[in-house]
Structure formats: C-alpha cells, structure tokens
Amino acid sequence: MPISIQFTQSYVGGSWKDSRSGKTYEVVDPSTSKCIARVSDCDAQDATQAVDAAHQALKSWQSKTSVERHGLLIKWFQLVQQSADMLAEIMTLESGKPLSESYAEVNYAASYIEWFAEEAKRVYGDVIPAVSPDKKMLVQRQGVGVCAAITPWNFPLAMITRKAAPALAAGCTMVLKPAEATPLSALALAYLAGKASIPAGVFNVVTASHGVDVGKVFSQDARIKKLSFTGSTAVGKLLLKQCADTVKRVSMELGGNAPFIVFNDADIEQAVAGAIASKYRNTGQTCVCANRFYVQSGIYDRFVKALSDAVKSMKVGHGLDEGVVQGPLINQASFNKVAGLVQDAKQKGAEVVVGGEPHSLGGLFYQPTILGNISSDMDIVHQEIFGPVAAISVFEDEADVIEKANNTPYGLAAYFYSKDIARVWRVSEALEYGMVGINEGVISTAMAPFGGVKESGMGREGSQYGMDEYLELKYLCMGGLN
Ligand code: ADP
After folding, report:
1. Which of 322, 309, 391, 315 is nearest to 359 (CA)?
2. Per residue in 20-59, pLDDT tens?
3. 251 phi and psi angles, rounded to 5 deg
4. Which domain holds residue 82?
5. Residue 35 a catalytic site member
6. Is residue 346 in some structural domain?
7. pTM of the model
8. Is 477 a residue of the active site?
9. pLDDT in tens, 98-117
10. Are 461 and 439 members of one domain?
11. Are residue 17 and residue 128 in the same domain, yes or no?
12. Pocket test for ligand 1, best of 25, 43, 94, 150 (most atoms within 8 A of CB)
C-alpha cells in the first residue's frame, strides 16, 4: 500500500471503525486497474450509527460561538494545505487525475474551508421596522441541524469541503458518504478534521461499495434536516423523491451539457486556451466540462486547427508520471460510454480530427479526441460525455446558436467567446444556465456561486450564498413592549 494511504476505516464519532459486518471493498487505481487499498464497506446500520454520532454532537457544536468555529475551521484549512503532498498523491492514485491537477484541487478544496471559516463570522440577522410601537421584529439565521452529503469521484476532496465547510461554519454537523471509487481522500480529510480538534461526531465519513442503503438512511432518517448531493441527475431525482417523506431541505448539483460557443469575433488564442481548460481538465470528467462546441463558420477552420495542435501534444499516462496532463477514465462503464458516443458520432458522419479511438496504453485510457461535423442527431450532443472528446459543430447565426445551446434539459455551465460588448450582454442574458463563462473557460472559485438551473439542480455552493443552504431563517416577533 502506498505510504500516503493510512486511513481505510470509516470515521464515526471521532473514531476509526470497521463496518459492522466486517466487510471491506477494493479501491482501484484506474491507471493500472490494480487494488491500492481495501476500505470499510458500510451498510444502513453503519450509516445510522454515523447519524447517531452527528446528532449527539449537534448541541455542543451549535452552542459554540462563531468565532470558535472559525478558529477550528482555520486550523483544518491549514492542515489541509500542509498535507498537500499526501492528499494529492492519494487523489491521483484513486481518481487517476494528473498530479498537478490533484495539487490544484487540494488548494481549491482548502479554499472552501478558508472561505466558510470567514463566513462563519458573518451570519448576520435583520431588524425589521415594526408594524406597531409595542413590537420588535427580528430575523435570526440558525444552522439547519444534522446534514448529510453524498459526493462524486471526479473532485474527491473539493466536492466535500464545499459542503462540509459551510455546514460546519453554520453550526451543523455532517455525515458524508464519498463516492465508492474515491473514499481515501475523504478519509484523509476526516483525519485532518480530527487533528484540527474539530470535535468528535461533527464530521463523519461512511464508506460503502454501493451507495443505495447508506443513501436511504441519509434521505429518510428524520434527524437529518438537509441533504446535499453532487452527482448524476438520475440519482439526484431518486434522492429528491426519497427526501420527500421527511421534507428535507436539499441541494442538488447534477449533470450538465455545457455549450461552448465561439463567435467570429472571438480572440482565437483565448478561445483555444479556454477550450482546453474547460474540455480536457480531469480528462473531460467534470460536470462543467464543455460538452458541445459551436463554432461560427468564419472562424471554424482556424479554431479547429489551433485546438488540434494543442490536443495532439497532450501527454497521456499515469497521473504520477512527469508531464502527464491526461489520465485514464474512472472505470469501465465510463470508458464504454465515451467509446460508444464516439462510435455513434462516427457512424452518423462525424469527422475524426484527432484521436477517436482507445489509447494504445490500453486499460481505461482513451485518446484525447476532437470530432468535427457534429450534428444534432448524434447522441454525443445530448448526453454528458465525461471524457476527453471535443464535439464541434459549425453555426452561422447568433439566435440559432442560442436556441441550440438552450435546447437541453440541463442548465449548469455555458461558455462563449466574443469581443462584441453588445453581443456579450445579449448572449449572457439569453443563456439558460446557472453559470456563464465569457471569454473564460475556468469559472469555479470558492468566492462565486456554483450551481445550475433546470435539471442541473438547485441550490448554490461557495460564495456568500453557499452559506444560506445550511441556514434557516427564524422570525422573532416580540410584543407587549409598551
Ligand atoms: P457518477 O455518474 O458521477 O458516478 P452518481 O450519481 O452515480 O454519479 O454518483 C454520485 C454519488 O452518488 C456517489 O457517491 C455514488 O455512490 C452515489 N450514489 C449512486 N447511486 C446512489 C443511490 N441510489 N443512493 C445514494 N447514493 C447513490
């Protein structure tokens, strides 16, 4: 086992625990398809124990001052930063992402803890002008209580901190189920929470090879007041239904189908740099990855040529190897999906500009790919690719491309490139998306609200708004003040 991997049991009530059944499951390095560790395989009973711990810890965590919570979160933030080597190595081993991206994610994940540690001190209320002289009317904001989180494998650390940090800052406790593929980053984060003296039971991690049973507990236990989920739209819909019986608050960060539009007046260099960052980061496995490229006819050839030059030079391989910028896909199902979408597009007339086949490294590696001549009858236009494949269509008209861009049930991120200020406003306002990158391919930061509209979800993470997801408003009306 690599030296960085030390934590393989669930973290509940401040202690490391085997699953009650004693079962474990394999965590696999997607670059080698080899087992790198075995972790606790928890069931519904284990999940309920974690809820017990979070419930028990709630009162005393709530009663801490915001300054005390700030101090503990800042300690956690510092420890995450100081542990970058360990965390980045674990992340690359279990997710396959290049080491440089893992280091960037450690910083990104830490930035949420720092941001919400600060926000803990700013959970202000309101005084409302009273309706009569004998009254005082106030609004107080209080933590919702015990929260549950279910997170995906593509950002094994940051998707956790952007839920856990605001929850803890707001005085909530949390139970977390990380993705089955990437439990090790989550457990290392839990270790650091303990080391930061965050009290036992405030942050609990339950690992499981199948999320279903744990997910049922998290969405049906009445002691949990809020569920925050990042993952596929299909699972999000299921969890929403499961949460209905206890009327839980929910935040849902679900799938996307991001359009990336390049107008004739765009700066090509900027557009290509943005396309590379948005499309190929994490080997195309982010929910804000550009999924459909629409390039205006006057710039199409030049854009495709410049993008091809950049993509051809990408080094593919094990994320720990020097200079690698593209890793493997996460598992066989993902690989099959990507290969199937490319195959379908090719059969329907797509032009293979670069790649278009499994990589010669074998296993879960797929060639960084560019497909041209994409048309709307191809599956690749309608499904989230989640792989290193840029699917490019040509367009003529602004109104037409906006209609195409919006013609999807999803509404997470959109990108476009133009130097025309009037167009920038028109297009920004017309795009039905929660986030729009304008002449910019990387939009996520702890300071901005991340989230989608339509079937991409509800709620926002990060920023001053991210805290609201973990707070209830309480209206206080004092009468008889004659
Ligand atoms: P992805 O396609 O990114 O793997 P999923 O939605 O399948 O997206 O997974 C995201 C998270 O949801 C993971 O932690 C996974 O274990 C969990 N999950 C998947 N199915 C369920 C379910 N039925 N109930 C609860 N959690 C689930």
Report:
1. 315
2. 999 999 999 999 999 999 999 999 999 999 999 999 999 9
3. -125, 135
4. 10-254+456-476
5. no
6. yes
7. 0.98
8. no
9. 999 999 999 999 999 999 99
10. no
11. yes
12. 150
